[in-house]
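Postdoc handover notes: sequence design on the structure in folder B. Input tokens:
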């Protein structure tokens, strides 16, 4: 699956822990005509890497993209065991306990090897969108430290620069699940865009949006509406309103350029890997904000702080069309 000279679409390696908002992100990404998903790796987070691959393959079948290779990542985190996913948020199976029709099977390669291979096949053009813990990316960097030089950009859903965490007061879940992996990803020689809780908590699908999906004729839309039920039930307890936040799909929309942040300084981000209460925090050096965020020499971490246009309505339209 190399990029031919006539194919101008951006090749994407997508790394996910499918997951309800990962489901929205996947459906949205595959609806983009500017980007071509050349491979998907799954990581333990919302569910195990293996279950994430099952969900991804089943969703690919539902959306008619069975030719995209899916590779299972390592079960455990980079330097620690995987402790299981939050069934109260995503359901026991990760897709709101909806039974999906069975899709294909994962490829034999693991996710890190798939990423390394794709980085050679699309040298300099490959973009990574990672919406789960960063385990696979860290393993790939460890196996091949030159990986960073062949990747055009990494966009992650993860972290919180100025906002509170969600897994702990200081840390966002994707980073908190595997802080050592996240630290390796921020240290590597590639540009990283961090789409964190600073923005993702503010973009939502509403109760009415879900009703529209449920009432649509398409099997895909009806299935997504059914999957969303569990997510809405959880977010009702957090937000006090029947809406859900759009963590992973917003990261995809920023990566594809469909959503342009209104404030996203390029600074240095470090990840707290100690064992104290700030474990998993993303420490972004935002001190330049008091003088208009001047360029920081050598900085390569774009931290998305504000997105003005509500993304929910845009996502809904794309889901209805998908
Ligand atoms: C992130 O954690 C996961 O539960 C979601 O899928 C998202 O990637 C939000 O903190
Ligand atoms: Ca996710």
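Designed sequence:
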């Amino acid at each position: 699956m190399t990029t031919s000279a006539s194919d101008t679409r951006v090749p994407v390696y997508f790394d996910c822990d499918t997951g309800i908002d990962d489901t929205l992100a996947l459906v949205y990404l595959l609806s983009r005509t500017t980007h071509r998903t050349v491979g998907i790796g799954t990581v333990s987070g919302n569910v195990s890497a293996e279950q994430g691959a099952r969900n991804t393959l089943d969703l690919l079948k539902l959306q008619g993209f069975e030719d995209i290779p899916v590779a299972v990542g390592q079960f455990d985190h980079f330097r620690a065991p995987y402790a299981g996913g939050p069934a109260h948020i995503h359901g026991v199976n990760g897709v709101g306990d909806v039974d999906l029709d069975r899709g294909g099977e994962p490829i034999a390669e693991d996710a890190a090897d798939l990423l390394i291979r794709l980085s050679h096949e699309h040298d300099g053009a490959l973009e990574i969108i990672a919406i789960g813990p960063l385990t696979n990316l860290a393993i790939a960097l460890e196996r091949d430290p030159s990986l960073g030089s062949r990747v055009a950009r990494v966009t992650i859903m993860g972290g919180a620069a100025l906002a509170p965490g969600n897994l702990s007061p200081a840390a966002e879940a994707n980073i908190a699940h595997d802080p050592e992996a996240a630290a390796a990803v921020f240290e590597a020689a590639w540009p990283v865009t961090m789409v964190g809780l600073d923005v993702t908590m503010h973009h939502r699908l509403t109760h009415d949006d879900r009703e529209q999906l449920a009432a649509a004729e398409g099997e895909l839309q009806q299935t997504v509406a059914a999957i969303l039920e569990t997510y809405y039930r959880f977010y009702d307890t957090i937000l006090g309103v029947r809406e859900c936040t759009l963590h992973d799909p917003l990261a995809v929309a920023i990566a594809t350029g469909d959503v342009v942040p209104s404030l996203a300084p390029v600074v240095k981000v470090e990840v707290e890997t100690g064992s104290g209460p700030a474990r998993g925090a993303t420490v972004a050096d935002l001190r330049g904000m008091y003088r208009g965020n001047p360029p920081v020499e050598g900085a390569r971490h774009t931290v998305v702080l504000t997105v003005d246009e509500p993304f929910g309505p845009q996502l809904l339209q794309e889901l209805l069309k998908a």
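Context for whoever picks this up: The radius of gyration is 18 Å. Don't rerun without checking with the PI first.
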